[in-house]
Amino acid sequence: MDSLFAYPSFAAPVAGQCFSRPPSIGILSTYPPTPCGLATFTAALSDGLSANGAEVSVVRIADGSPTSSSRVVGELINGSATSVAASSELLNQCDVAIIQHEYGIYGGADGEEVLDLIGGLHVPAIVVAHTILKNPTPHQRSVFEAIAARADQVVVMSEVANARLRLDFNIDRRKVTTIPHGATIPGRVSLKRSGRPTLLTWGLLGPGKGIERVIDVMGSLHDLPGRPRYLVAGRTHPKVLAADGEAYRDARAEQARSSGVADSVSFDPGYRGVASLVELVQSAAAVVLPYDSTDQVTSGVLVDAIACGRPVVATAFPHAIELLGTGAGIVVGHDDPDALAAALRRLLTDPRVAGSMAAEARRLAPTMAWTSVAKTYLSLARRHLVQRPAAV
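RE: above sequence
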């Protein structure tokens, strides 16, 4: 027996019908307690959809850990054709299916098993593309183009991703739409930042995060009032932990010691819930995203930083260039430590600059609220239900 499934009680829809109620949504994704950004995204989107009156059911990609969420109606077991077919049928019990896509979460070469799952759907399928590769392999390209061909709509979360998908892939451009990555918008909180100014990077830790870039320049900030500190918050990514243990974190701690800035660099590997994380981000003088990637078209951490009204300093990955272009932060070259040090010094020493960036972040934040983002998904779902021809 591949998996146990508890079928939801609501009736399957009739194609072409008009909806006086919000459409029911089935989501295929990783889901908490799986520790990854996609799971966090799906849980927050589910909450936003529910807040807009939609009934949400989740088919969770199994990772061996149990979940207690009442939303989870079944699990997809990669490598099992029976589970793929059963997952399609579960999603068919809803009005619309939302498929979260990353290459690494589905079975088969480059996640190609998801093609059979989408092929088994009889309801409109909205695919949310979290990664659009700039230089995909031929097989990665063919898999994604096949996914897009079977989907009713492909959602991306930045305009650069939209342009890349429409221009560089052989897909129907009319299927591509942009819906911003959502964020939790904190209430008005008057935080008095005390002690040493904090530069913050957070998220699942591993190679590619670029933590070494910030450690390299911390020594040049020692002369500033209050002697700023650099806090790296978050657990090591489970896949990195399984392959290499804490080698990356240990190497960064040793880098700080050998550079003489150990008293200005700290690591917090503890888990934080949404409220605790928001409080941490709001307490920071600035958020630093020093990522190695020159290709990243979606960053949930970047969106969360802006939603919390904090100035951002980021390397020049595409989503940062797009979101920070109106003044919510500073973008620096990946291989320009002098520019990184100058940007951090400017934020820490010029309250007018920091205040202006924080104000722009607060201006942008409302468009990112999960309830607003979820409402856009529901509008998209309704549109496809109306466009579908009535069942014969």
